[in-house]
Amino acid sequence: MAARQEGEWAHPYVPKDLKLPGYVPCFLSQKDIVVPYLATSLLLVSFIWIFSGRSKLTKTDRLLMCWWAFTGLTHIILEGYFAFSPEFYKEKTPHYLAEVWKEYSKGDSRYVGRDAGIVSVEGITAVLEGPASLIAVYAIATRKPYSYILQFAVCIGQLYGCLVYFITAFLEGDNFAMSPFYYWVYYIGANGWWVVIPLLIANRSWKKITAAIQAEKKIKTG
Amino acid sequence: MAARQEGEWAHPYVPKDLKLPGYVPCFLSQKDIVVPYLATSLLLVSFIWIFSGRSKLTKTDRLLMCWWAFTGLTHIILEGYFAFSPEFYKEKTPHYLAEVWKEYSKGDSRYVGRDAGIVSVEGITAVLEGPASLIAVYAIATRKPYSYILQFAVCIGQLYGCLVYFITAFLEGDNFAMSPFYYWVYYIGANGWWVVIPLLIANRSWKKITAAIQAEKKIKTG
Fold this sequence. Notes:
- Chain A is mainly α.
- Chain A has helices at residues 30-52, 59-83, 96-104, 116-141, 147-171, 180-221, and strands at 4-5, 8-9.
- Chain A has a two-stranded antiparallel sheet with strand order 1-2.
- At the A-B interface, helix 4, helix 5 and helix 6 of A face helix 4, helix 5 and helix 6 of B.
């Protein structure tokens, strides 16, 4: 743990002059934070994969249900906690969700610094995109006609959020990570999935929708 | 015009402690800024309305073409200028686009203060949503099958941008307007259109798309 300075813990984040009165260091190791998240996610995804195997859904639809459940719960639980817990970095006990964000802030100190852009994007993600992702699981399972457009809407939201996230960091000097390791693994690596996967799903939804519009047009014209 | 202080013009924006070295006051009056914008827009919209009257397009589609042309050119010209002109408030000659943003900043000083969240949202709006809006005009005119999903995508982007815009201001204390007049007319009034109209168009696109998916399903099932 870091040394105490004038009754306060010195924080490890970059930039060094970031003021965090009342900061309390991480209690858990990186492994103790990351492994439970990945293990719980894997359990959730396996459960949905096996359970949906009994249905007549295609493998793509089953995979999509796994993704939407995983991303929906991540949005609601992890990002929801962050958006509405401005004092998470002062937690004096090992609260798992507070630890997640103390750890993640090593890759982007704007989280611990409560940057307004970050809090806005995370709030929108947690409140709107989280529940919408879970509705997408239901919509795919029950083959609702709004399934593609709902998935498309959430993907556009996720992509817009990532754009704001990366562009604001660039404009503010891109100096929020403790080291290249945290920059590439947390800031780029963890967020990269929410660029690549929404791009793929948005592209698929776009094609499915335009194909349906074309089919509908053919009926009308002939 | 404001008084010169220590070789610099004092700016009229709120908060007063905002530092704007090199600031040069507005040359044009509010009327000289707003009237040309509204008159040009009205001319553009009238031109599209009359020109599209020769086609077999519905009145709704013609109205939508007017909106997409208006919003697309606003995004590209006005917001594009802002996003890529960090020194607009230092313009020493009456450059119309610089004047627009000096005037608008009376309702939201984060523009003249180059807030990273504002510049990000305006950059995304100008570079992605502007051209996409003009493609929507073309897509409606030529009845492309991607017309609804493209319009829907731009609407979600516009709504996300407005959410970030309003939430960041709220989180930062909502104290960026010179007076209640500028707050309600510029900050709320001018932006309100980009909340209400995208909501209406997104809702319409959603319904059209789900109807097409349902129709396609009926053919497949029997």
